[in-house]
Write a structure and sequence with these properties.
Layout lengths: L1 E5 L3 H18 L4 E5 L2 H6 L6 E5 L7 H11 L4 E6 L5 H6 L4 E4 L4 H17 L1 E5 L5 E5 L3 E7 L2 E6 L4 E4 L3 H8 L4 E5 L2 E4 L3 E4 L3 E4 L4 E3 L2 H18 L1
Parallel strand pairs: 1-2, 1-3, 3-4, 4-5
Antiparallel strand pairs: 6-7, 8-9, 8-12, 9-10, 11-12, 13-14, 14-15
Length: about 230
């Protein structure tokens, strides 16, 4: 799990990092932690992160403004805001804040929110057994698309890694329907959040892959995609 901490105050930045490390040690859990005083560096590496602990008061903009930019690029990143000023909390939740912390940060409150992160991630984890009968754990939010090859299904992840399993498409549709996965073809199921461009007969994905979009599924797929974009605004 990759966690970024962005705060232009170095003392606060290191304090939050120390608390997260303490939480990991106490709970036998692992966060891959990255720290940024410059939010522009954070933006350059945005695709790497699942969660961000973000200061509200940055140098030349607010964390609220930055969150809007982040969610335009990746809606699935969860943001925990922190600030000395609780008055920003209403604005924070208007941009879909995961949680809001008031400085000085209370350790128990931060730990409570990290517990929620773990629960959220556990709920979206699935265990797959590949065709060689090896088990692996996958977060469904990291799946770009799934395509069928006979009785085998190829699960394509955002890191370009592919897992091949014996699972029919109907089972995938049932499992992933609540996560915004939709068919582009009877044998191709796409995660809408990874769609970059929809062309006449092709859907181009953010990982660089492209999949066939059939005439039968085109209208519904476009509608689902546009609905998702509307929900993000």
């Amino acid at each position: 799990m990759k966690l970024a901490i962005c705060d232009n105050e170095k003392i606060d930045l290191l304090h939050i990092k120390k608390l997260v490390q303490e939480y990991c040690k106490k709970n036998d859990y692992f966060f891959e932690i990255y720290t940024y005083q410059d939010y522009k560096k954070l933006i350059e590496n945005l695709d790497d992160f699942n969660y961000i602990i973000l200061d509200v008061l940055l140098n030349d903009l607010t964390g609220i403004q930055l969150a809007k930019e982040i969610h335009n690029m990746n809606r699935d990143i969860k943001i925990i805001f922190c600030s000395t000023n609780p008055e920003y909390s209403i604005e924070a939740f208007e941009v879909d804040a995961f949680r809001y912390l008031v400085k000085p940060i209370e350790k128990l409150k931060l730990f409570e929110y990290l517990d929620e992160i773990r629960k959220y991630e556990n709920d979206s984890q699935i265990t797959l057994m590949d065709y060689q009968r090896k088990k692996c754990s996958v977060n469904v939010l990291d799946i770009c698309y799934i395509d069928m090859n006979g009785r085998l299904s190829n699960v394509h992840l955002k890191n370009k890694f592919t897992i091949t399993v014996r699972k029919p498409m109907k089972d995938w549709i049932l499992l992933l329907s609540k996560y915004n996965f939709h068919l582009t073809h009877k044998g191709v199921l796409v995660n809408l959040k990874y769609v970059s461009t929809i062309e006449k007969e092709i859907v181009i994905l953010k990982n660089g892959d492209s999949v066939y979009l059939s005439r039968k599924y085109r209208k519904e797929f476009e509608e689902k995609y546009m609905n998702m974009l509307s929900d993000m605004l």
